[in-house]
Amino acid sequence: MAGGASKITFIFLVAFAITIPSLEAGIGNYDEYIREQEVEAHEIALESYVPDPINITDEFNVHVNRALREGLKDEANSTRRQLKQKYRGPCLALNPIDRCWRCKSNWAKNRFRLAKCVKGFGRKAVGGVDGKIYTVTDPSDEDPINPKPGTLRYGVLQKEPLWIIFARSMVIKLNFELLVASDKTIDGRGAHVVIKDGAGITMQFANNIIIHGLHIRKIKSVEGGMIRDSWNHVGIRTRADGDAISVFGSSNIWIDHISLSDCEDGLVDVIQGSTGITISNCHMTKHNDVMLFGASDTYKDDKIMQITVAFNHFGQGLIQRMPRCRWGFFHVINNDYTHWQMYAIGGSSEPTILSQGNRFIAPNNHAAKEVTHRSYAAPAVWEKWQWRSENDLFMNGAKFVESGPPIGNLPFNKGFLMKPRRGMHASRLTRFSGALNCKVGKPC
């Protein structure tokens, strides 16, 4: 009996150890299929990890400078340049991602070109470029197990690569968490697509996904249950947290030109060993916990996490976590921080943060002037973390407290303006952040 009891205890402990991460993922039953997905996703993450991240940041900086120089020439030729007014002049693309595709009038006939435009750590994300175009014609979301053809849920669950577009403008209320399978692009260009008042978008143990051109707001925590998470698997999900976009154990993800606001939990959460991520050209407003990169101070596998945060506008009504980081390497470049109530960039568990060419406008509250936040650790601990600021612009008393030694030598080629653009350019680089009003046959 004693031996039998010990065996039962051992099985319980193993089961409990497996359940801990699954609870965080919303997985109700960590079955054999999910375990196989996890192993495969981890192998892809290790392949996506860059041993020397400075190479990626240097490459990114080259593209930023080239695009801005060319874009400023276009802006100088524009007859309407008032930044405080809604821009109605000719197409301007002032950062390298936008310059790759935005001002081409045939973008709708060549949607796949977008896959060539990603920069930073998410550079390998090409989404559904190798597949067919799937058109969402039905905004409903009634059946989480056998979704109707024509719905967004049906498209994101298919086995093959797909480039998903929308037949018309629509509002989609996701009644259940939307789990996106690998090799997909969700492309909202040409329609006003709003996801609101229901569940959000989740990438779990997935690879190679692009999410572009959506409005996502008022996402809520919703009940779980039996939900299809791939073309050949249905599993039990626990209650969803209320994140707009959640990346869990996934790699090679690009989130671009998304307008995000007012959700129950986070706007963008990246956790559980995810890596190879670029978050760019997004406009974020009216939210508390904006972005969480790494959810646990004990999950050291997040050391492989590498994320580029570029050309985003952190706007009105934001409080904190832009982002809040753990363990990995985070390149925060040429973003415009015009609002925060507590702090902009925080972290714990010795993350490496390279802040370049951002504009930080502090609130009028004298207790919230500091951009950085490390109250989770004592100064004797965090002073060794590598948090560096280069060419940032600080306004209204904003201050960035650096720590640790410089991050690499950053060997720039002086003949090609390799240094990142200074923070004074951040407002231009982020000028067209958020979902764009793209019209077929015209530049965006």
Automatic annotation (TrEMBL):
Cofactor: record remark: Binds 1 Ca(2+) ion. Required for its activity.
Cofactor: Ca(2+)
Known pathway: Glycan metabolism; pectin degradation; 2-dehydro-3-deoxy-D-gluconate from pectin: step 2/5
Keywords associated with the record: Calcium, Cell wall, Glycoprotein, Lyase, Metal-binding, Secreted, Signal
All residue ranges annotated as the Pectate lyase domain in the record: 169-366
Superkingdom field: Eukaryota
InterPro entries per record: AmbAllergen, Pec_lyase, Pec_lyase_N, Pectin_lyas_fold, Pectin_lyase_fold/virulence, PEL
Enzyme class: lyase
Reaction catalysis annotation: Eliminative cleavage of (1->4)-alpha-D-galacturonan to give oligosaccharides with 4-deoxy-alpha-D-galact-4-enuronosyl groups at their non-reducing ends
Signal peptide, first to last residue: 1-25
Compartment(s) where it occurs, according to its Swiss-Prot or TrEMBL record: Secreted, Cell wall
Main location: secreted
GO molecular function: metal ion binding; pectate lyase activity
EC numbers on record: 4.2.2.2
Xref: PANTHER family: PECTATE LYASE (PTHR31683:SF184), PECTATE LYASE 18-RELATED (PTHR31683)
Protein family (similarity comment): Belongs to the polysaccharide lyase 1 family.
The protein's name in its UniProt record: Pectate lyase
Annotated organism of origin: Psophocarpus tetragonolobus (Winged bean)
